[in-house]
Write a structure and sequence with these properties.
Elements lengths: L2 E5 L2 E3 L5 E8 L8 E6 L6 E6 L5 E3 L7 E6 L4 E6 L8 E9 L1 E4 L3 E5 L2
Parallel strand pairs: 2-11
Antiparallel strand pairs: 1-3, 3-8, 4-5, 4-9, 5-6, 7-8, 9-10, 9-11
Length: about 110
């Protein structure tokens, strides 16, 4: 069974950094688009950043200049490096992968608070 598993969330102080990781497990096929989304309490899920196998990336305006998405195609893994974190970045962060269909992770909590 194909699944994606996130790791790396936690509590960080404002201005701090965090690195999220996500691995697409249970597949030997090449994974297509991979992305990070987030959902804050009372808000809709929104795209943070995405990356294609070619390396092409897209970032939400709110994360441009403060985050870097990267991937390791050989390991079917995607990373999200976030810097200068703000309280408004607090959310559950979800990993997404296109593996014949849309596959979502269970999410990892990121809390930015002093």
């Amino acid at each position: 069974q194909v699944q994606v598993v996130e790791s790396g969330g936690g509590l960080v102080q404002p201005g701090g950094s965090l690195r999220l990781s996500c691995v697409a497990d249970g597949t030997r096929v090449r994974v297509g688009r991979m992305a990070w989304y987030r959902q804050a309490p009372g808000k809709q899920r929104e795209l943070v950043a995405d990356i294609f196998p070619s390396g092409t990336t897209t970032y939400a305006d709110s994360m441009k200049g403060r985050s870097t998405i990267s991937r390791d195609n050989a390991r079917n893994t995607v990373y999200l490096e976030m810097n200068s974190l703000k309280p408004e970045d607090t959310a559950v962060y979800y990993c997404y992968a296109r593996i014949f269909s849309d596959v979502w992770g269970q999410g990892t909590q990121v809390t930015v608070s002093s």
